[in-house]
Fold this sequence. Notes:
This protein is an alpha/beta fold. The chain has helices spanning 21-32, 72-75, 89-99, and strands spanning 15-18, 35-41, 47-53, 56-62, 81-85, 102-110, 113-119, 125-131.
Amino acid sequence: MTVLPAPIKMSIAPWLNVRDGKRAIEFYKSAFGAVEVYHIEDPDGNPVSRLSVGGAEFWLSDESPDHKNFSPETIGGCSVRLILTVPDPDATFASAIAAGAKQISPVGEGHGWRMGRIVDPFGHHWEIGRLVHPEPESSKPKGGSIDG
Length: 148
C-alpha cells in the first residue's frame, strides 16, 4: 500500500539577510522569543537558520554579495517591512527595544490595529501589533475566503 504525503500547506516565509547571522539569531531569540528550528553553517561558520516566533517562521543568513543577497546595512535601507502579529504588542515591542531595536513609531491604535514599529539592529523594519477591531466588510476578500 502506498502512503501519500500530507497535503502541503502554502506559506510565505521571509529570508532576512544580515551582516552577523549569529548575533541576529540571538537578537531574535531575546527580542521575540524566537526558537531556532533549523540551523546549518557554511565552512566559515556563517549560519543559515530557520526561526519560529509562536509558529510564524522566517529564515536568516549572512548576506552574500556574490549571490546578490544584501543586508539592509549594505544597501542603506530595506524594501520590505515585516508585520509580527502578537497577543500583546506592548510587551513584545518593549522586549524588542530592550534587546537593542530602535523605535520608529510607538505602539498606538489606528486603522483597527494596536501597533508600533521598530528597526532591528540589522536594519529590518518590524511592525508589531494585533487587530483590535473587526476588519470592515470592504477589506475582506470578494467571492469567498482566501483559504479556498
